[in-house]
Amino acid sequence: MPTATDQKTVELIIERQSDPDSGSYTETFSVPYTPNMNIISALMSIRENPTNKAGEKTTPVQWDMSCLEEVCGICSMVINDVPRQACSTLVDELEQPIRIHPMYTFPVVRDLIIDRDSMFDSLKQVKAWIPIDGTYDLGAGPRMSEDKRLMAYELSKCFTCGVCQEACPNVNDKSDFMGPFVFSQVRLKNAHPTGEMNSDERINAFMEDGGLQGCSNSQNCVQVCPKGIPITTSIAAVNREASLQSFKNFFGSDNY
């Protein structure tokens, strides 16, 4: 039987911050290893016994989580320099010591908890919703072709986790670029038979300051997206729509 001293451990170096206005610092933890362990499991082990590697009692590390199955998107953080979901990141696949810090693209609330309000503000700006009149029975909705339905399904997988925002070199405090996730949301809503009635509004809103012109097509976003959303395809599609919209705006015609 292995003794306590033979217990395999996982070492984590975590960047911490007490509140939005305080400075950050790092703290190292050593937690017991368990098979198929993910980052959330490691953080929960620290919460159960908030003692750092030096044997000093400390405050439990704070982070967000909900679904634990890569659906809610709120456990996003940077793990070994890659933005990803903590719930689906396995310890066995990482080099140790494991370094974790919050996504710098967003304001830090505390430790690994971030404020993603900017993403939802961007969705409001481009009117990323389908307007309907729910005051009476509209009957059966319009049908979509199978090809368009499959495309829309892939785009609908976005759960605003913010990982693509963190990976994008154009999303930073020196830029007002809304970020790559908006392209797929505009494309998704414009592809809907009802949503396309307001496509001009969405494209025009996304052509304003902080919009699509902020993208340099680095393609970092598509490489890190946990859902494999074809963001670069959406970038190309929305840019084509914007070019057409520019002609329509210039000539004041709906014939294009």
UniProtKB/TrEMBL annotation:
Every 4Fe-4S ferredoxin-type domain range: 149-177
Gene3D superfamilies in alphabetical order: 3.10.20.30, Alpha-helical ferredoxin
Alphabetized UniProt keyword annotations: 2Fe-2S, 3Fe-4S, 4Fe-4S, Iron, Iron-sulfur, Metal-binding, Oxidoreductase, Tricarboxylic acid cycle
Cofactors, names only: [3Fe-4S] cluster; [2Fe-2S] cluster; [4Fe-4S] cluster
EC number assigned by the record: 1.3.5.1
Protein family according to the UniProt entry: Belongs to the succinate dehydrogenase/fumarate reductase iron-sulfur protein family.
Name of the protein: succinate dehydrogenase
Species in which this protein is naturally found: Lentibacillus kimchii
Gene name, Swiss-Prot/TrEMBL: sdhB
